Amino acid sequence: MTQTIASPRARLREIVARLSVPGAIVVLLIIGSFVSPSFLSVGNLLNVLNANAAVGLVALGMTFVAVSGGLADLSVPANVAMGALITLGAQEAVGPIPAALLGFLVASLGGIINGLLIGYMRINPIIATLGTGFVLLGLSQLLVGGGIVYGEPSAIADAVSGSILGIPVFVWIFALTAAIMAPLLARTSFGRWTYAVGGNSVAAEASAVPVRFTKAAAFAMTGSLSGLCGVLIGLSNGQARPIIGTGYEFVAITAVVIGGTSLFGGNGSVLRTVGGVIAIALISNLIVLTGLPTQSTGLITGVIVITAVAVDVYFRRKEGRT
Amino acid sequence: MTTRLALQMTGISKSFPGVKALQDVSLEVRPGEVHAIVGENGAGKSTLMKILAGTYQPDAGSIELNGDVVSHWSARAAIERGIGMIYQELNLIPDLSVSENISLARIPRRGPFANFAAMTAHATAVLEELEADIDPGARLSDLSISQQQLVEIAKVVAERPAVVVFDEPTSSLGDRETRILFDVIRRMRESGIAVIYISHRIQEVLEIGDRVTVLRDGRHIETRDVEGITPDEMVRLMVGRSLGEMFPKLDLEPGEPVLEVDSISSEGLFADISFDVRECEIVGLAGLVGAGRTEVARALFGLERIDSGSVKVNGRRVNARNPRRALAAGIALVPEDRQRQGTIPQLSVRENFTLPVIKRVTRWLLIALGKERSVVADLADKLKVNPPLVERAISSFSGGNQQKVVLGKWFLAKPSLLILDEPTRGVDVGAKSDIHAIIGEFARDRGAVLMISSELPELLAVCDRVFVLHEGEMTAMIPRGEADEESVMRAATGQVTA
Amino acid sequence: MTRATVVAVGRLAVDYRLMIVLVAVSILGAVSVNDFVAFDTFQSVLNRATIVGLLALGLTPVLIARQIDLSVGSTLSMAGISTVMLQPMVGNVPAALLGLLVGVLIGAVNAAIVVWLRVSSLVTTLATLLIFASLALLLTGSRPVSSPDPRFGLGLTSELFVIFSPRSLLFVLAVVAMFVWLRYTPSGRRLYAVGSNPPAAASAGVNTNAYIASTFLISGLCSGAAGVIQALSTATGSPVAGAAMLIPAITAVVIGGTRLEGGRGSALATLGGVVALGALTAVLEFNGVPSYTQAIYTGLLLILLITLDRLVDGGGRKAVRTHGKTRAEVIPNPAVTRRKS
After folding, report:
1. What local confidence, expressed as pLDDT, does residue C196 receive?
2. Neighbours of chain C (3+ CB pairs under 8 A)
3. Which residues of B touch A (CB under 8 A)?
4. Which C residues, 106 through 125, put their C-beta within 8 Å of a C-beta on chain A?
5. What total of structural domains would you count in chain C?
6. What ipTM did this prediction achieve?
7. Could you give the strand order of the β-sheet that contains B308-313, starting from the edge strand earlier in sequence?
8. Are C17 and C257 in contact (CB under 8 A)?
9. pLDDT tens sequence across A21-32
10. Closest to C196 (Cβ–Cβ): which among B90, B95, B268?
11. Does a structural domain hold residue C331?
12. Structural domain contains residue C322
């Protein structure tokens, strides 16, 4: 993004910042290879990516939320649930593909509502998304009477669970989406607006940037991507419960934060988030391979988030003092 | 018999990496005097004051208070020894009451509880000393900026300081409020406090100051009695140039009207405003702070609502409900507050420059970086952005350079009308004349300029016509030949009705 | 109806929102449920609202100090399971005290990260929410733990002084203590300073770090208390007991009028919000509304109130932030004066 050519210390920080995520990934890969012989196999790595590709989609959207200074979208679990439940639940009525589309659309609607509340009504994003998430989750539970929804086997379910050229479809979808999102943020006017709004929204408005639209769009995108995530998971699992999306918002936020993007806006990139997703994927795989219980994922993720942010804050402050 | 000096700073030097901020500067302030410090941005005024406040440590030199040399100077020591600082950014708590703000550092107790009665009494006493008509129980955020400043002064004065420093205190104050401030300062002077008054505004210094110290480029130039100095002389001391050379006079033939404003009103902000701006013309909008000038400017740019009346640009009716529409209609606004409204700090100069018109350098949905860079390079060159490192984050540039970027980014947009709100406020004299040259060139290029400035000499020198606002209404239109400070001030204070 | 009138009405609605919600809920209750407006109902509502109420109470000073604590639910769970799991080892009362201690310790963790590591409270408490929810699951094997002595906490929910129960009385006393502290003590007033304009508070000699740290400790204590009381009352320590309580707690605080921007807030207002929300929940339950539908109503109420707040704020005090500093720009109510300051 922007180079600050100032002091050697700033340059050092710049280098550390750029290398930290790839470096962390390399370190994880090395640790993993010691932990288990099967870790570095292509099969395992693809599996790992596959398991995290769906939530990775959410993280891509969360990147825009973060860069635009929107803090976080905590309604992700609800939108994921909506996507999954409707995709499966409406299958009987309208057929698998229209049902999937419907699921995606309803979740997108949730995202648009978030966007309107946060971008146009200027409500605090944390409160707004907590509120809409609560409402939507309740709605989704109402829809299914609190139980499980089962889907029928269908062509699209098979397609989604399969592989192309040996790489799981999930991973393809994630890669494709990332390939669209990255230049969207880095090289389009909309992307520039996003950075501007996150950096100084008042000045952005005074520079004729459509601030409200930009903020709203970030949340709308995250809602849609959460819906897509839910659709994919629902189809590949064949069943869904309202709690299906629990914790996804945290994984997404963690990916963004580990990647080095600040939740307060103005910096970061999609590529960094992709790095964060990969890092998280490796970490959760390591947890499983070392025999730690799956519940400890939350613990480890939380500690990593704090460490990553604390380190970033430390370097920023040091730079600010010179 | 010698009057003991309240404050004596001797031989102060301070360097930062790459910059010698102060070289062997001395300052002597007597009790009961108002000692002004003037100088351009970068002259060293704020560094000197930060040293006095204990924020910085001097590399060399000593500080004496009331004759006693102080060996270890720190912020704590400064406060304890009676230095009171009043900055532009008020150091107050909006959500607490006036008396709580005044007593915040030392809240009186009654057992485990706060003694509100004592706080109120204390506040009332201090406010009365300053003859400030403020309710101690009022919530601070309900007061006007000028009243809040008085509370800040009360807070400082309550500590019975020996020296009080005012740093650009009138930048958000109107004329009437400045009078009140000066009365308060005079009262402080009478009570024996040594007042240091830092300001850009020469008129004020000449009015309130007893002596003045001029700094330039980190050095002490001169200290004189204020009596007998002319503004021209003051400027020459500060800058090395005379007043007349500062504002270049332009002689352009105005063309067709670009902006026609007919009887616009905005509830609570302004009413029934009509004026026009023609091609190649620079029109000034004068008035006291709070008269509504900025509000009119913002309304034209879509940042405030216009309830009635019409706005035409190049003959076509325009309804700018937000800045994007305004820009599309050909209107651009350079806002008053450069830091808050002007720059995106972590973005580079290039990115700041192209922000309003980013769509124009996109091709096939993506930003054409090559084209962007070349366009920006030309612009930075024309505006004399120094150093011309456009990939650097804009926050690392000086105020003057930042202002050039804030100004320059609209040039790429090629607006028909350029509205400038205090374009040279807080900018050093060198950059000031660069900016005036830029404005002049824009006008020469068949642009129309609407300029708001609180510096009357600047306004009068540069503008072809001056419209004057008073409390939201237009009171006068004065062409250049007839415009002088007196006629403008009369209209601005409501002594003339349109 | 002119715009000014609409704004004025809206403003009244916001200022008196607590009153309005309470009245609306009471009317709704009186209409839809028999004998709704009775001491009995009040006792029951207050009793049940105690748990969320304690969370909301702990959140109040945190929000005043311009911070946020999203980990209150996880803290509740941790305190609850600690109490129950320690009961057989150390006895009932010590176990309860240790449960409280767990709450305070989690608060201390939050405080340390925010103040020493300088990580924002949003990121910090989002992380600790995760960490301790996870830890709770690990400690209990993802299953609720039964108390070996269910009779100990039985009395907590019984009737006391007509309108209270032991636990709700405790809650109300805590509210009063917090109210007195915030409104009438020097340290309470300084807390508002810390949240309203941190650099100004610091230059007046207020130790902002200490104040911010203590708000997290208080929040931890209150959440811990909520967890202990919850566990004792139900004789069960559940690792997910607190998960669903975060939003009702925040809703209660918001109904009460405390702002997220810091500098404003009141313990009594939070109490009002807690009661209002509790009453609403009771009305819904009496009408047989399932819990997930209740969630919908609660969420909608939260959004409605926040939106109303925003809509009306256009003519009120605008706090402007400049790189972290707040400068209050005074824009007088247009319905009152013509001129802009």
Report:
1. 92
2. A, B
3. 17, 301, 303, 322-324, 326-327, 333, 335, 340-348, 351-352, 354-356, 358-359, 362, 365-367, 369, 389, 391-393, 396, 409, 413
4. 113, 117-120, 122-124
5. 1
6. 0.82
7. B270-278, B257-266, B308-313, B316-317
8. yes
9. 778 788 888 888
10. B95
11. yes
12. no
Q: What is the nearest CA distance from B111 to chain C, expressed in angstroms? A: 9
Q: What is the pLDDT of residue B297?
A: 93
% of chain B beyond a pLDDT of 90: 18
Of C190, C317, C334, the CB nearest to B141: C317
The residue segments making up the domain with residue C150 are 9-314+327-337
Instruction: Convert the pLDDT of each residue in B243-262 to its tens digit.
Output: 555 566 667 788 888 899 99
CB B127 within 8 A of CB B97: no
pLDDT tens sequence across A246-299: 888 888 998 998 888 888 888 889 999 999 999 888 888 888 888 888 888 888
Q: What is the CATH number of the domain that holds C242?
A: 1.10.3470
Exposed/middle/buried for residue A85 (C-beta within 10 Å: 0-12, 13-18, 19+): buried
Q: Which spans in chain C are helix H?
A: 3-15, 17-32, 39-64, 72-90, 92-115, 121-140, 166-184, 186-196, 198-203, 208-234, 246-256, 267-286, 291-313
Cβ neighbors of B275 (< 8 A, separation 6 or more) are B261, B283, B467, B474, B477
| Tokens coding A146 | 């609190």
| C263 closest CB neighbour out of B95, B113, B143 | B95
Whole-angstrom distance between the N-terminal and C-terminal Cα of chain B? 59
Which CATH number is A199's domain given?
Answer: 1.10.3470
A182: contact with B, CB 8 A cutoff: no
Across residues B147-174, what is the average pLDDT? 86
Alpha-carbon span A141 to A143, nearest angstrom: 5
- Sheet of B19-29: strand order equals B19-29, B7-16, B60-65, B68-69
Q: How far apart are CA B256 and CA B279, in angstroms?
A: 6
Range of the domain at A118: 39-318
Tell me the pLDDT of chain C averaged across its residues.
83
Q: What is the DSSP letter of A265?
A: S
pLDDT score recorded for residue C133? 93
Q: Write out the two tokens for B346.
A: 């972590």
Residue C199 structure tokens: 């650099």
C96 Cα distance to chain centroid: 21
Q: Is residue A34 part of a domain?
A: no
Asked whether residue C78 carries a pLDDT value surpassing 90, the answer given is yes
Beta carbons of C310 and A122 less than 8 Å apart: yes
pLDDT of C316-341, one tens digit each?
Answer: 333 332 222 222 332 222 222 222 22
Q: Distance (Å, rounded) from C-alpha A167 to C-alpha A47? A: 9
CA distance A286 to A291: 8
* Amino acid B196: pLDDT: 93
Output the CA torsion sign for B232, B233, B236, B241: positive
Question: Which of B128-163 are b and which e, b meaning 16 or more Cβ less than 10 Å from the residue's Cβ?
Answer: eebebebbbeebbbbbbbbbbbbbbbbbbbbbebbb
Q: Is residue C2 part of a domain?
A: no
Quick check: B178 and B166 in contact, CB under 8 A? no
